[in-house]
Specification:
The complex is a heterodimer of chains A (about 300) and B (about 170).
Chain A (H helix, E strand, L loop, with lengths): L1 E6 L7 H14 L4 E5 L7 H4 L10 H5 L9 E2 L5 E4 L13 H13 L4 E5 L6 H9 L2 E6 L3 H25 L3 H9 L9 H11 L1 H12 L3 E8 L6 H14 L3 E8 L21 H18 L4
Parallel strand pairs in A: 1-5, 1-6, 2-4, 2-5, 6-7, 7-8
Antiparallel strand pairs in A: 3-4
Chain B lengths: L5 H8 L7 H15 L16 H23 L19 H10 L4 H8 L3 H8 L10 H14 L4 H17 L2
Helix pairs in contact in B: 1-3, 2-3, 5-7, 7-8
Classes of the chains: A alpha/beta (about 300), B mainly alpha (about 170).
């Protein structure tokens, strides 16, 4: 079973659509898929699935300790099930690290081939940790300068969060703080030099960092393109992530903008299951296929 | 002058071990075009990671990777990079567009891959062979826009005149 996390920083780039679409297309390929709406700020996977009011939500896992498996509901799409987000909650901030760890333990036990987490916008620790914990890391961008800058910021935060987590695991946080405080004495000007310094002095840190980095493989999805000339942006951004941020990234493909997406016959129709969504289904299928192929050699 | 290994050079230019010299050339040209534009959509000059120094460093690495792979292929010095043609007059017809493409050393197959437009449609655009294009203006406009963008040409200046000729041809059928 694989956990996919769909993030990317900026709101409005289509993380929810891509999460839903990947889930629906994987289900259509015969896989058993559970979508988990972890977008605490704006849960709406139930609407994508054509479900009007979620009876059970992820909030009950945290607040009422309802087993995660009991929160899974069927959708109208064969093979695709859903854990809805907490649509009626006032505040879902501040999930503790222990709660997150528990959530992931339970996610791994869900009876499915793929679990897809819609992470929502932002760079809170909740989002960053979930992104880092996942087996497949998907970043959604749109072809505009703001979305692209935000994805770089998001990934920079991912990189730093990963580093601080490894520092905690190896008991080096205080040591790292000291080094950073006196960085000029150590001839350190950049974060990469700081990392190199810690790596050189602490082999266990270097080993853990290498392990953590090896688990990171960012699949970039370029959403909302309006002409095929924009398709190049996906490849250019994944190249920039590699070259400028030093993180492994590939472009898994693009998804064309569909202005009539929400003109479905009635609210019970899953959003990708009406005529106007044809190109979206086609593009999302290609993206899902590319990600599966890229991950085929991973354990 | 260089200690860069071939594998690293291939990773930098994003070309596989089986890449031809032509493909290496194209990858190099493409990266120079993408990274050389400070207004490029995919750069974030506000972030330290994308500073002028960082961009210059990345461009230098790309250049070095190109030199390394050319030497591997030819056992000699690499040819001088083909400059993007300076256009005194914007190309208007398919034949003129083809000349620009050929000057840039790009094949139709490469452009088809870049634009996701079928190669025979691109050939029809260059031949002004409108009958071989889909009979839908919006598709032709889309193909033309993708083609011009991939060549780095200003679509907004070139496409209207081309489309006007196409529409006139359609009206006269």
């Amino acid at each position: 079973m694989r956990i996919w996390a769909v993030g990317g920083g900026k709101g409005g780039t289509g993380k929810s659509l891509v999460s839903h679409g990947l889930g629906a297309r994987l289900a259509d390929r015969g896989a058993s898929v559970i979508l988990v709406d972890a977008d605490f700020g704006g849960p709406n996977q139930h609407t994508y699935c054509g479900l009007r009011k979620p009876e059970r939500t992820l909030g009950q896992f945290f607040d009422e300790k309802v087993p995660l498996a009991d929160l899974v509901v069927e959708t109208r799409i064969q093979g695709l099930r859903l854990v809805s987000g907490n649509v009626n909650a006032q505040n879902t901030d501040g999930i503790t690290f222990a709660q997150k760890a528990k959530l992931f333990r339970h996610l791994r036990k869900l009876p499915a081939d793929h679990v897809i987490l819609d992470l929502g916008a932002g760079t809170s620790y909740d989002v960053l940790d979930s992104f880092l914990e996942a087996d497949v890391q998907v970043c959604v961008i749109a072809p505009d300068a703001l979305a692209i800058e935000n994805v770089y910021l998001f990934l920079k935060n991912v990189k730093y969060r990963q580093m601080t987590r490894v520092l905690s695991e190896t008991g080096l946080r205080d040591r790292a703080r000291e080094v950073w405080k006196h960085r000029t004495d150590h001839g350190i000007a950049t974060v990469d030099q700081f990392l190199d310094h810690l790596r050189a002095g602490h082999p266990e840190f270097a080993e853990r960092m290498d392990g953590a980095r090896a688990r990171l493989s960012i699949q970039l999805v370029l959403n909302q393109i309006r002409d095929m000339g924009q398709a190049e942006v996906g490849v250019a951004v994944s190249g920039a992530i590699q070259r400028f941020l030093g993180l492994p990234a590939v472009c898994a493909g693009h998804v064309r903008h569909e202005k009539d997406l929400w003109r479905r016959p009635n609210p019970d129709t899953p959003v990708l299951h009406h005529g106007a969504a044809f190109t979206l289904r086609q593009d999302l299928d290609a993206v899902a296929g590319a990600i599966l192929a890229a991950r085929a050699d991973q354990p | 002058m260089t200690g860069m290994e071939e594998a690293r050079a291939r990773a930098l230019l994003e070309v596989g071990p089986g890449a031809s010299l032509e493909e290496i050339h194209q990858a190099h040209q493409r990266l120079r075009r993408l990274l050389g534009d400070p207004q490029g959509l995919f750069l974030a000059p506000g972030m330290d990671e994308f500073s002028e120094e960082a961009t210059a460093r990345v461009l230098a690495e790309v250049e070095e990777a190109f030199q390394v792979l050319c030497r591997v292929h030819q056992g000699a010095s690499p040819p001088a990079p083909r400059p993007t043609p300076v256009l005194e007059v914007l190309p208007r017809t398919g034949v003129e567009l083809r000349k620009v493409r050929e000057q840039m050393g790009l094949t139709l197959a490469f452009l088809a891959q870049e634009t996701c437009v079928r190669e025979d449609f691109l050939a029809a655009l260059e031949a002004d062979d409108f009958v071989r294009l889909p009979p839908v203006s919006v598709s032709v406009r889309g193909f033309l826009g993708a083609y011009l963008t991939a060549l780095g040409l200003p679509a907004e200046s070139i496409a209207p005149a081309y489309m006007a000729r196409y529409e006139a041809w359609r009206a006269g059928r």
